[in-house]
Each structure stands twice: as structure tokens, then as C-alpha cells.
Amino acid sequence: MLDQIDVNKTVDKETYRAARENLGAELGKLQRELKEEKIPVMIVFDGLDAAGKGLQINRMIQALDPRGYEVYAAREATEDEVMRPFLWRYWTKTPEAGKIAIYDRSWYHRVNVERFEDEPDERELAEAFKDINSFERQLTDGGAVIIKFFLLISKKEQKKRFKKLKDSRETRWRVSAGDEARNEHYGRYLAYNEEMLEKTDTDFAPWTIVEAEDKDYAALKILIETVRQFKEALEAKRAAAGKKTAEITELAPLKNGVLSGVDLAKTMDRETYKKEMDRLKKRLEFLHSEIYRLRIPVVLCFELGRRGKGRGHPPAHQPPGPQGLQGGSHRLAQRSGEGPPLPLALLEPDAEGRPHRHLRPHLVRPCHGGAHRGLLHRRGVEAGLRRDQRDGAHMANFGAVILKFWIHIDKEEQLKRFNERQENPEKRWKITDEDWRNREKWDAYETAVDEMLVRTSTTYAPWIVVEGNSKYYARVKILSAVADALEARIKSCN
Residue 202 in contact with residue 134, Cβ under 8 Å? Predict the structure, then answer.
């Protein structure tokens, strides 16, 4: 999902300066309160090379009392540190009660940079993730607050920044051969980081992804999130001690955007569409027989799309053959004692338009029932999103290929399709008063969808956003994605 996040978000200078002044004052005040409550804080800055981690740390600490924080920059492990467990050197840099430790890269170096360079085996990697989660859990159980930022930029922007640094004699030393290698293999390195985020985004130490191409936007997002988490930590500590807590003023967070970067102008003419569909049908006929032969279960989810997207008739409903296909609402592929396994299942909204049970609450609650987004509500939603990840992991561990499609259209296209249904007696049943009411909450739904896509897209069950204004283009993209995924799994079995 990292490659689908819209990194081009910006904020104008005037808005940034005004917000920074207010947030900076608030941050300084909260730092003093954290000291009084003896709450240790650890702030991790990670992400892609040249994404501006050092710059953002410098901007943050301008609002802090220098007597109350320490900054630790990444460096090569010393000979003494190499002889010890890799987390030992970070244990020695944990903050005392009431202090703040800020890390320019951290223990995550083990599972992104070192993984890229050394390619550890799966057992070593799994143990590293386990150790990291245990490390963070032990710290938060002891009262520490861990705030983690992942700064994201595109391959093109990263290369541009490297060039600028190398063009100056004073800064060219900052670009290493390793930096350039990771840019050259950007996709592989991004995939490693996506897995890192997926396996270490926990209730007790969640990640915040920061779109970092606009440095002011990134700084504003970091300040807003830091202030929010400082306030929540104070509220929780005081509530546990039976102290009265002031009402938390909810900040408007800057959410990750996937949908804002979708190019809905993508289209396909009928002639090209027919050629592509003929080609894909032949390709899928072979792949379908192979997954049936190899007993590979496949789950295709068409979930929670806006009404009018055409999700009720995706091309996956036109399989190359009936063997091994199980469709319909809320049904998963299952083994039958009377015959061979049914390896292909479709998950989609039911006949009444209700979406699959495990995703609905996390989308509807933020969109309905007012603007309240308190601590308990937010944690409830986040816990639900992580539960969805575990459900997907369970199916993936069984061996299933899981693909989740979000078919995206714009507001104008939806209105056009609504009107067409309203005016057609044979299709009028497809549209309800609820559809029109939900349309009025378009922006709220889009914010919730963005959060859902980012938080529940995993390496084993990815969301694929489909540009749906052109039905021809959408159908071809969906079938191509299915074919690519099946080919990759079949290849791994041979």
C-alpha cells in the first residue's frame, strides 16, 4: 500500500506558520506536564533515505526544552555492541521518567537497511520482528510512550534529492553507495519497509506514515500527531491515578491519502478492451486449472465500494470455468468431505447491499454518529482494523491467495450512475434512500476509507485500488491483478 499513498500533499506557508506557532507552544507545555507526571517518551523517525528525518527532528526540538530531551542519530554498531544482542545498544538509550528520547533511525535498521544489505533467512527475520515487538511492549507496559513516524517519498523525489546533495561538495558525503542502491531497487526496499510496518504496527506502539515530499506538510503532520499522543498519554496516566482530567481538544489529524492520488481519467476504448479480455480469458483458463490442480485456495474481496461502482458484477463473476468457484455473500472457500476443495471464493456485499461483516464497523462509525473521535473510540476502531489483519493472516497462513479490490469513482460519476438507475425501472431497485444519504457524507467516507486501506493492506492480503470511472479499464485491471497473483503463487509451488 505504500506505493499507492499520495505523497504529493502540501500546505501553504501561511497556514503552516500559524499552525506551527500554536502547536509549538502546546508541545512545550505538554513536555513540562509529561515531566511532572514522570512519563518517558520515545520518538522514532524512520523512513526512506533523503526523506528529511534530520530536518523534521530539528523542527520538532525547536519547541522543546533542551534540558528534557536527547537525540540519538543512527551510526554503525561499535565492536562492543556487535558482540551483544542488537537491541542492547537501544536499551542503554531509553529515557528516564519524564524525559524524551528522539531517534534518527533506530532498532528498525535491523529489519530494513540490514535486511536489504544482508538478506537474512526467514527465521532470523521473524526473530528480529518478535524481539522488536517484545522490546516495545516491555517499555510501554512500564509506562513509556512510543511514537513512530515513517517518512515516505517517491523514487523520483528521492533521486532528485540525492542529486542535489551530490552536486554540492559540502553535502555529497551524505549520499552513500547504500543509499543509491536502495534507490535503484526502490520497489524491493519499499516492500521490506511495508512488511516492517505491517508486523510492528501495534496497539501499544502504532506507526504514523508521513507524506514527506512537502517538508512543511510533513512537519505539520508530525507536530499534530505528537501533540495528540502527548495529550492521550497524560489523560491515561491521570485517569489511572484517579485524577480529574481536562477534556481533550480533538486535533484534526492529517490522514494518509490513497484515493486523492488515484487517476480517474484512466480509460480504455472498446476495441482494446475486447482484445485484452480475450487475452486475459485464455491466461486465466490455464491459471484456474492450475490452482485447482495444486489445491490453492483463492479469495477475491470486492468490499465497501461506493454504490454505483459496478462492484456487483466484477469480471471475476465471469470465471473461465465453474470448477472450484464458490460465489455469493459472506462465503469462504472451504474443504468438503464429498469432493475436492473449492479453491476460489468471492467476498462481496450481500443482496441488500450490506458489506462484509468484518470491515463495516470501522468504516461506518467514523462516518456516522457525529464528529466524536475520542480516545476509546479511536482505539476501538484501531483494534478492529488490526483484527481484520489477523483474520487475513489466518487465511494466508492456510495458503490462500487473498486480493482485496476497492473500485473507486468520483462524485460526478456516482451521480451519473445513480440517476441512470433512478430513471430505469429495471434498475431502480438498486438505489435506496440510504444511498442518497450516504452520498452527503462523501468526504467523511473518503477519510475513513483512506485509513482502512492503509491500515489493513498487508503483504499477504493487499488492497488494490481500481480506477473505476471507466468500466472497461476497471475490469481489465482487476483480471490482470488476479492473473499476476495466481502466476506468482503457482510459480512458488513449482
Answer: no
**Is 305 within 8 Å of 478 (Cβ atoms)?**
no
Whether the CB-CB separation of 279 and 256 falls below 8 Å is answered with no
> What DSSP string runs through 130-155?
HHHHHHHHHHHHTT-EEEEEEEE--H
Q: From CA 362, how far away is CA 385, in angstroms rounded?
A: 7
Element (H, E) at 477: helix 471-493
- Amino acid found at 332: L
- In 94-219, the DSSP E strands lie at 100-104, 145-152, 207-211
Closest of 151, 149, 179, 148 to residue 51, by C-alpha: 151
Whether the Cβ atoms of residue 211 and residue 6 lie closer than 8 Å to each other: yes
Q: Which runs of E-coded beta strand occur in 422-489?
A: 463-467
User: Are 465 and 453 contacting, i.e. CB atoms less than 8 angstroms apart?
Assistant: yes
| Cα gap 121→420, rounded to integer Å | 56
Residues 88, 251: contact at Cβ < 8 Å? no
Summarize pLDDT for 47-63 with one digit per residue, the tens.
999 999 999 999 999 99
pTM: 0.77
For the chain, domains (ranges, CATH) are 2-254 (3.40.50.300), 260-493 (3.40.50.300)
| H-helix segments, 328-374 | 360-367
Q: Say how far apart CA 330 and CA 54 lie, in whole Å.
A: 48
Q: Which residues contact 97 (CB under 8 A, 6 or more apart)?
A: 38, 39, 40, 143
Q: Find cell 528534557 and name the residue.
A: 68
Q: Rounded distance, CA 354 to CA 320, Å?
A: 28
Assigned C-alpha cell, 154:
517517491
Q: 112: closest CA among 190, 187, 45?
A: 190
User: In this structure, what C-alpha cell is assigned to residue 186?
Assistant: 526502490
Residues 202-228 have a mean pLDDT of 96
Inter-residue contact 404 to 464 (CB < 8 Å): yes
**Contact assessment for residue 39 and residue 235, using Cβ atoms and an 8 Å cutoff:** no
Closest-CA residue to 227 (of 201, 208, 202)? 208
Find where cell 492450475 sits: 290
Place of cell 444519504: 437
**8 A C-beta contact, residue 145 and residue 229:** yes
What torsion, rounded to 10 degrees, do the Cα atoms 388, 393, 398, 403 define?
70
What whole-number distance in Å separates Cα of residue 162 and Cα of residue 185?
Answer: 15
Looking up cell 515513517 gives: 150
Contact 384, 362 (CB under 8 A): yes
Which amino acid is located at 217 in the chain?
Y
Joined together, the cell numbers standing for residue 13 give 506557508
Q: Could you give the 3-state DSSP secondary structure of residue 344? A: strand
Distances from the Cα of 419 to the Cαs of 351, 427, 436, in angstroms?
A: 21, 10, 11
230-286 pLDDT, tens per residue? 999 999 999 988 876 655 555 666 777 888 889 999 999 999 999 999 999 999 999
